[in-house]
Design brief:
It is a single chain. With 63 residues, the protein is α+β, with helices and mostly antiparallel strands. Helices cover 40% and strands 14% of the residues. It has two helices and three strands. It has a three-stranded antiparallel sheet, with no helix packed on it. Strand 2 and strand 3 form a beta hairpin. It starts with a helix and ends with a strand.
């Protein structure tokens, strides 16, 4: 299923902000893009990157 034009633009905007924050090594800007939910679980593409976000603080590992 293809997203509508508005949704696609919004997703691309967040992806662009994410990449810009990553390149600048601006963790606060990157984390601001995520939901501020104490139950949020962050899982990366590799088994060594996983963690939880209790109280907006990442408490996982990224090796």
């Amino acid at each position: 299923m293809k997203a509508d034009v508005k949704t696609e633009a919004e997703v691309m905007n967040v992806m662009s902000q994410s990449m810009e924050a990553f390149v600048k090594r601006d963790l606060d800007a990157l984390l601001a893009l995520y939901a501020h939910d104490p139950g949020l679980v962050v899982i990366g593409p590799y088994s060594q990157f996983k963690g939880y976000w209790p109280g907006n603080k990442f408490t996982g590992t990224a090796n």
